[in-house]
Design goal:
With 141 residues, the chain is of the alpha/beta class. The radius of gyration is 15 Å and the shape is globular. The termini are far apart. Helix content is 42%, strand content 18%. It is built from six helices and six strands; from the N terminus they run E-H-E-H-E-H-E-H-E-H-E-H.
Length: 141
């Protein structure tokens, strides 16, 4: 039986990219229209949840993660999916949110598959992409 992952991302394009990248190896699901990630977890009982960090609301993602981890007797594994690198200190966010993994920055499909595999194996993966040196400086000029 394939392991199941719930993708909780309000951004349709981001959600479709994640589902498309992971559908080969995992059973994928998304919350229904207007459904919160917590209700979707209660309904579907996934093995893991990829919880997107919304623009400008990283504390909201951390709060949602804490709710997911404390709601049931057998909480799912939760990975914070931060495609725009909004969380500045991932290790601190993992601790405060009780998350099981973090992936941030510009993510390739193969990296996402490796992250999901490590998350479901219980390895607590942290993958942070940083821009190449000088790239941000050139962009700001």
């Amino acid at each position: 039986m394939r392991q199941s992952i719930l993708v909780a991302d309000p951004d349709v394009r981001g959600r479709l990219w994640v589902v498309d990248s992971l559908r080969e190896g995992f059973s994928m699901s998304i919350p229904g229209p207007g459904e919160t990630p917590l209700r979707a977890v209660r309904r579907l009982h996934p093995d893991a949840v990829l919880l997107a960090v919304p623009r400008g609301r990283s504390s909201e993602a951390e709060r949602a993660c804490r709710l997911l981890k404390t709601d049931s007797s057998i909480p799912p594994l939760v990975g914070l999916l931060d495609q725009w690198g909004r969380i500045r200190r991932p290790e601190r966010a993992l601790s405060s949110a009780r998350a099981d993994g973090y992936i941030g920055g510009r993510i390739e499909a193969a990296e996402l598959v490796a992250f999901a595999t490590a998350l479901l194996a219980g390895k607590r993966p942290v993958l942070v992409h940083k821009p190449p040196p000088g790239l941000l400086r050139r962009f700001l000029r």
